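Q: Given only this backbone (285 positions), what sequence would you predict?
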């Protein structure tokens, strides 16, 4: 083929390769909202206009955890040193609610100071790309992963460990990482025991995986509620939304609800309140 014939062919090949290449990540506009959801493939931040959350004063039975996380987040918003945080414990005890409530409380004190970015468990391998996207942004970011845990044959924890350790670049100064988990060490006990039983050196075999939780400077434990605390949560909800029911009837119905559910937790208290408000013909919010 002659040169005039080859050049158009090469241009068509180049155009085809451009179309096949993955799209470049868009720049992060962290001023578009106070909260975002991170998506990978392609990488982008979806603004969240209204976050599903409960006011911080309504979170009862977790006063120590609430104050500790609030203080850590305030310091971070002020540009001071702060720790990554792991909120671990029983299901439905208010771990994720607390993260969202603290974010709202700090932004109410200092409007626009913090962006909350939720990353899904399955997108953890893309976390380094997210950090690269927000690293030089002027706004400070709380990256939040709800229900984080790892199972056997799952090595994505290595991506998270590298991020928490900082790697060669170090953790961006404008980022902290908050995670919730039902597991204190982010992995099932049988997974740890299996590693220990089959290893030549049992201690070293599990150290790498167990030490992942050690990368979080702040550990906050959440536990099942006793009945007085459970009732105090529901009474707080009833006062806040002015539910039309006597205290005696409220307590009796709340106890019956917890018995039928076989549990007492912040989630059970909230579900009871939603049911009660519906039966009373009242709206929450």
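A: Predicted residues:
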């Amino acid at each position: 083929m002659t040169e005039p014939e080859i050049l158009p062919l090469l241009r068509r090949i180049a155009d085809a390769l451009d179309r096949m290449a993955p799209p470049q990540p868009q720049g992060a506009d962290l001023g578009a909202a106070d909260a975002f959801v991170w998506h990978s493939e392609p990488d982008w931040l979806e603004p969240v206009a209204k976050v599903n959350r409960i006011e911080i004063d309504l979170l009862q039975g977790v006063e120590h955890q609430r104050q500790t996380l609030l203080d850590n987040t305030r310091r971070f918003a002020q540009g001071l040193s702060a720790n990554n945080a792991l909120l671990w414990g029983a299901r439905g005890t208010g771990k994720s609610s607390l993260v969202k409530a603290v974010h709202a409380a700090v932004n109410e004190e200092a409007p626009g100071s913090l962006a909350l970015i939720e990353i899904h468990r399955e997108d953890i391998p893309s976390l380094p790309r997210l950090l690269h996207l927000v690293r030089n942004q002027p706004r400070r970011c709380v990256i939040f992963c709800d229900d984080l845990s790892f199972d056997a044959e799952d090595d994505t924890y290595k991506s998270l460990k590298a991020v928490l350790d900082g790697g060669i670049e170090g953790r961006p100064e404008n980022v902290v990482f908050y995670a919730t988990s039902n597991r204190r060490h982010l992995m099932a006990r049988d997974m740890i025991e299996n590693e220990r039983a089959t290893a030549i050196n049992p201690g070293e075999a599990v150290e790498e995986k167990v030490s992942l939780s050690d990368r979080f400077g702040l550990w906050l434990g959440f536990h099942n509620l006793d009945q007085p605390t459970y009732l105090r949560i529901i009474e707080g909800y009833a006062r806040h939304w002015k539910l039309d029911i006597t205290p005696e009837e409220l307590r009796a119905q709340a106890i019956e609800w917890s018995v039928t559910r076989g549990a007492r937790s912040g989630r059970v208290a909230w579900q009871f309140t939603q049911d009660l408000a519906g039966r009373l013909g009242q709206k929450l919010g």
